[in-house]
Amino acid sequence: MTSSSLARPIELQDVSISSKFWLGRIRTVKDASLPAMYQQMKETGRWDCLKLQWKPGQPNKPHQFWDSDIAKWLEAACYILAKFPDASLHRLAEEAVDNIRGAQQEDGYINTYYTVVEPELKWANIAWSHELYCAGHLLEAALAHYTYTGSNRLLGPLMKYVRYIDSVFGAEEGKKKGYPGHEEVELSLVRTYDITDDPLLLNLADYFIKERGSRRPEGHYYDIEAKARGVPPQPGPGHGPPYSYHQADRTIGEMTSVEGHAVRAMYWLAGAAGVCRLTKDKSIRRALDRLWKSAVHRKMYVTGGLGAIPELEGFGPDYYLPNETGYLETCAAIALVFFAHQMIHLDPLNMEYARVLELALYNAVLVGVALDGKSFFYDNPLATVDGYLSRSKWFEVACCPANVARLLSSVGRYIYSIGSDDMIFVHLYVSSVARVTLSTGETIRISQESKGPWEGGSAFAIDGSTNLGSVKLCLRIPDGCTDFKVTSSSSFQCESAGYQARIVQCPFVTQKTVSISVSFSFRPRSIHPHPLNLDNTHCVAIARGPFIYCVESTDNPDITDLRAIRIPDNAEFSEEILDEQGLGRQGFDQACVHGLGDKAIILKTKAHILQTDRNEQDTNTVLTLIPYFMWANRGKSNLRVWLPRL
Amino acid sequence: MTSSSLARPIELQDVSISSKFWLGRIRTVKDASLPAMYQQMKETGRWDCLKLQWKPGQPNKPHQFWDSDIAKWLEAACYILAKFPDASLHRLAEEAVDNIRGAQQEDGYINTYYTVVEPELKWANIAWSHELYCAGHLLEAALAHYTYTGSNRLLGPLMKYVRYIDSVFGAEEGKKKGYPGHEEVELSLVRTYDITDDPLLLNLADYFIKERGSRRPEGHYYDIEAKARGVPPQPGPGHGPPYSYHQADRTIGEMTSVEGHAVRAMYWLAGAAGVCRLTKDKSIRRALDRLWKSAVHRKMYVTGGLGAIPELEGFGPDYYLPNETGYLETCAAIALVFFAHQMIHLDPLNMEYARVLELALYNAVLVGVALDGKSFFYDNPLATVDGYLSRSKWFEVACCPANVARLLSSVGRYIYSIGSDDMIFVHLYVSSVARVTLSTGETIRISQESKGPWEGGSAFAIDGSTNLGSVKLCLRIPDGCTDFKVTSSSSFQCESAGYQARIVQCPFVTQKTVSISVSFSFRPRSIHPHPLNLDNTHCVAIARGPFIYCVESTDNPDITDLRAIRIPDNAEFSEEILDEQGLGRQGFDQACVHGLGDKAIILKTKAHILQTDRNEQDTNTVLTLIPYFMWANRGKSNLRVWLPRL
């Protein structure tokens, strides 16, 4: 196995999660988020918009993104239904399918807005219209529906739509040389190709990736379509941002840093990485390496969040990561999970991708939804001063709620990947049962009993019908863990795969069952900022296991101003395990406690509190830290992730 | 003399500046800023808008603020003309006067927008209309014109307008209970009262201050007028910000902190302080103390700038002072100078007011205009990362250019105040000649030869026609100076007035001339942030004399990223005096050099430069610092005021 070996993603339907923590999060999506979102969509007119009955002058005028809201909800619903049959949710899902089918035009086109509101602008403003963005989300919903039901009832119409799109856009003579202003369709094409093997899908995705930002002799495509509409080209006062906002100022091969809108950029790169996995394009591969480093090494927050600049919903300069004004859109973290997941499959022995996937998932994504599943953050600054921030039930631009729902309900997809030589890459230590087909064609079953996410260690039981001696587990050594150790009841080989992973195999095993255990410990650890990140000069962040911790004022009522906290360099952190009762005492209500899987670990330390009133002496206090994703579930409060050192 | 003794401002026409530095700044206003602004106003239709010839459908539709742009230009022009006669500038000023006179309606009303664009909304939207804001600026222009010409040609019509306003707004039965959404008129009424003694002016100002934010039984005035227009009241989505944005959420007596739009808040408090000086209202006095402390101790940047929140153009929470995203509008610093100046006269022995006035003037105000006078900053962050910031020739909302012009051209007003008992308060050490009328009615002449602003020390020569034994100078001890020492050729008494000032008198003098000299030294000094200002944790700012210094990348081409600079705690700063040639070598062009009065002092120190590339060792370099107000005069570059300590 060399580092250039590829791996393929495990399919979601082959994984069943049993982790109490993750079942807590997923059941909350089912029982709270999906119904709450349906209600909001129903009330705002979104749910029924695909019936195409809106007329000018009526309320609830459809918006360009509305189809994608329904699509993401449907996608999440199908993931949920595959595990938790539910007749009424099933009926709603099929109603959504009917609506989408009903909205399809003769030529295959599906888009509410450009069918009923501005039909004359169909395909005329691809830089801003979100038509291809909605198409991508509809395709992902169709794929989820296909996987759940085995029926082509939605995937069929969507494939017709894709063929229509392919007839409109492409490198071939006579086709428009456009590409989406909001990327997303590329990744959905790759995912659908992974299931259906239809080369048209990959060709179209490859075209969108390669065409993006190109300067043809006739000009930039967005200029051409703007001119055709009689409006001035970007950028300029009142003309919109520069094309770097859409990652369309140059081609991917020419890009040296991620710029512009963070969600667009991450969807784009996830799609590009998927294309690269399938086409093995070397120039895209080099670009992906550069752009990964730009995003993750220089523009990522400590929580895995992305986007320093609210005005752009996007990236700022390198290492410019302000806390209070940071944007860190929930969707950007979700998109980073997708990007990291696709990158894993280009270089599965580089554990950085899984490390970042886990970081973003457990922190920047999870924080986007309340523990009770009913309210959502769109942007996620790392500090607040005046208690202004709380989650919202819904947003006018409602991308984040359904996006987080579809990711949480499909988290099983990120636990394993399948490499050549029967290598099973373990990205996440999450209790689950998975089915994996070996190179021999035989299917094995991997049960993982994990102590995660709160403690380190997992016991793997691998069952098959024959000899399991060829099976290898590539075990990732998580960030900041100690005492990483592998054991087995069989004799085994354990080989280092860099300093980030161990490859374990039981070559002489003759049983049809193999047990391999990995143990490791989590201790609270300090993270120091990059020296050019001046917003956090002389500060530390505290982490334990996959979680970044924070101070929330709710837990620290004696501290008038969280900014007065100073952490001594020799501070020791003690751990406190909270069970259901403990969480209740800490102020979390029943719904939140269940959403957490009834357990959490909080940290305590002695901190120095500055007294800014001249007449008072500094004091010491016992500071409570909670996992960052758990903040803002107990009413208005303040937050700090980075804490100044004493 | 007790600390409750009041003082009166010296009138601008009684002071003539001879400081090379200030003549450089003022001549630049005359020769560059006023012509450039006239040109912009002419081209954008502002200059001629008061001719009231705009019709719907024509270009250059007047905006609600346009009258104020002309008024501030005219005010500055009159200040300039009083010192530097100039026939063509005089003609333009009189043309503006003619236009304003011509725009006056039968009832006295003067407002372009509400005469030609939306006449049906006259006085109907005082929360947002800027009618009273424009009225205030027109009144200040009229006052400047009256002082310059001695003619009532503009002040007469404006007094008619004021009487009309007084007939519309006021506490009396039948009058509207409104007050301006953008304060300014209050201060102009006070200033006009100081000259004309017309009690109507003070009564109206007093009404505006006292009525503001009151909750009458019939409701909040802004709600009432919104309802009358048939629009929803503030706040709410699409309804505008909360009333705290206008400082109208409660009355001044109920306010505990400055909130909302910083320029509005400072104009308001300057007006309130002026009213308080004249009415001696104790509740307002207490409120002013509270609100001064809120603004200056908890919400002011190290440069004297105000406004952390761009979205509000206003105040954030206490000690929240981000560098890169700070707003620090030039106009807010100008308004702080006005507020501080009015506060001086409530408590002239409290030197904090003059200290803050000087800080804001030499830093947060001066930075608002290029050294060549031709371009302007609207907002003034204290750090930039990607070289995005440069001054603009003009703004759509063009409040700042003419505002800085009128302040710089009237800076003489801030040098002295006249207390009871022939006490002359010296606020600024600026070479000048002033006329002061003593309690005896006799007029004396004070010549000040100052080494400022680059070095400390001034020689005062006081000439009168009789015995000068009663004259006292209250000499402020500037921030961070050393070796403050008073000498005189006559025998003199020197008494401490707190630790911030010395009161000097030559009681036995019998001559008609007295010489008093004060000497002090400036050394580079470090300023440490408030501990709750976490944006600058473990950082220092460097100052010398009245100037805050900064690092600009232009002067430090070897430093790739200014964020890599670390200042050792034992760093020593050497001073380098730049003359005309030296400034040229430092990259300043001729116009900038002359705008500076041909001299500046820059600082050098040995700094540590972090190398973030793992393969390179940290280095030391000689760092150049320049006064903050001088930055951004040599093309695109980056800026940092606060520097991390090593």
TrEMBL record, chains A, B:
Residues 524-644 form the Non-reducing end beta-L-arabinofuranosidase-like GH127 C-terminal domain. Residues 14-412 form the Non-reducing end beta-L-arabinofuranosidase-like GH127 catalytic domain. It comes from Sanghuangporus baumii. Pfam families: Beta-AFase-like_GH127_cat, Glyco_hydro127C. One of its GO terms (biological process) is carbohydrate metabolic process. This is Non-reducing end beta-L-arabinofuranosidase. InterPro entries: 6-hairpin_glycosidase_sf, Beta-AFase-like, Beta-AFase-like_GH127_C, Beta-AFase-like_GH127_cat.
